[in-house]
Structure formats: C-alpha cells, structure tokens
Amino acid sequence: MDYKLRNDLTFPEQSFVEFLFIEIITNSKGENIIVGIVYMPPNQNVLDLINSLNILIELICKENKICYIMGDFNLSRMNHRSHQFTVEFLDLMFGYMFFPVITLPTRITSHTATIIDNISINHSDNCPINGLLLSDISNHLPIFCVTRSRLMDRDDDKYIVFRDKNTTNVVKFRCYLSNINWQNLYRRVL
C-alpha cells in the first residue's frame, strides 16, 4: 500500500502522549484513509489527551475522510458511569461521530478487567469485523478490525491463484528466511 506520514497530526512538544498518523493512498478518486495510533501512559493528565484529540479530530473531520483511531488510551470505557474523564473522552469521540468497535475487556488481570485499548471509526457503512485475539504475548489482548472497503480496490492488483513450489522458489524462500534477524524473537520468548 502507498501511504504518507501525517506529521501535521501530531504534537511533538507533548512527551506524555504519543500520536502517529498515516494516510493510506487509494486509487479511488482521492478518497484516502487516515489511520492513527495513540498511546497515553497510565497516570497522565487526561485533559491534555482530550484537548489534543479534540484538535486532531477536528482537523481530520474537515478532510471528510474515513478514519481509524486506535490505541491504548488508558481510559476504560467500562468506567463511563463513575469516571468523569472517561465520560468526557467518550463525549468527544461520539461528538465527532467516532464509534468504538471493541466491546470486550482488552486487559484482564486476576482482579480487574478493562477496555483501555480500542479502535474508533468515523463510518459505519463498512460493517467492520472486529474482536480480540487470545494471546499471552502481552498483558493486553491484541485487538483487530477488518473492513470491507471498496476504497482499497486497485487497478494494478495482481492476484495469486496458486503457489509455485518449484525448487528455485523454495531456495529463494529459505534464503529469505536465513537473512532475517531472529534474535529479537528469541529474546521475547525467553
């Protein structure tokens, strides 16, 4: 996929919260898709996150593009009845028509369950398939969202209908695998 980094959708002077936005370039009349990742460490000033998101989402909405905002917000949607900042965060997202797609707890411990990781989308016509992956790779469950998007259709796509497992391709595949640095994977497993 072709994409461009959206440096205009970030706040580098704020070190407590991390934003990363890209714009996926489509071949459908300039209807690009914006994808953003947000991380707010625990015990930070939630009002600063809300104010920053308000500015970013207002800019995004002016472009009238499909947008996915995802990440670890460290605000549990399950606390919407008892935590004022969670209410303000949800009011902000709903006010700009960004709706969360993850509805089950994403961080589960022996004594708590929270929905602090989420994906919010500003469109509902793609009927997203979404959920959690059961994995012990982290103390957060991985989240996902798959959409049926006509925007991703490209004229220059090439479809593979079979895999040619001839000797040359098997050698190329083995060579490719041997050139990968596997040390990071081994360190995480140990």
If you had to describe this structure to a student in words, what would you say it looks like?
The protein is an alpha+beta fold. The chain has one domain: Deoxyribonuclease I, Chain A (4-Layer Sandwich), CATH 3.60.10. The protein is 26% helix and 24% strand. The protein contains 4 helices and 10 strands, in the order βββαβαββββββαα. The protein has helices spanning 46-63, 84-95, 167-178, 183-189; strands at residues 2-5, 18-25, 33-39, 66-72, 99-100, 107-108, 113-114, 117-121, 129-132, 143-146. The strands form 3 sheets. Strands 1-2-3-4-8-5 form a 6-stranded mixed beta sheet, with no helix packed on it. α1 runs parallel beside α2 (84-95). The protein starts with a strand and ends with a helix.
Show the helix and strand layout.
Elements lengths: L1 E4 L12 E8 L7 E7 L6 H18 L2 E7 L11 H12 L3 E2 L6 E2 L4 E2 L2 E5 L7 E4 L10 E4 L20 H12 L4 H7 L1
Parallel strand pairs: 3-4
Antiparallel strand pairs: 1-2, 2-3, 4-8, 5-8, 6-7, 9-10
Helix pairs in contact: 1-2
Strand order of the largest sheet: 1-2-3-4-8-5
CATH architecture: 4-Layer Sandwich
What is the distance, rounded to the nearest whole angstrom, between the alpha carbons of the first and last residues?
Answer: 34 Å
Radius of gyration over C-alpha positions, nearest whole angstrom: 20 Å
Order of helices and strands: EEEHEHEEEEEEHH
Alpha-beta content class: alpha+beta
Q: In total, how many beta strands?
A: 10
Q: Please give the largest β-sheet.
A: 6 strands, mixed
Q: CATH superfamily name?
A: Endonuclease/exonuclease/phosphatase
- Can you tell me the residue ranges where pLDDT is under 50 for at least 5 consecutive residues? none
SS element count, helices: 4
Judging from the principal axes of the Cα atoms, what is the shape?
globular
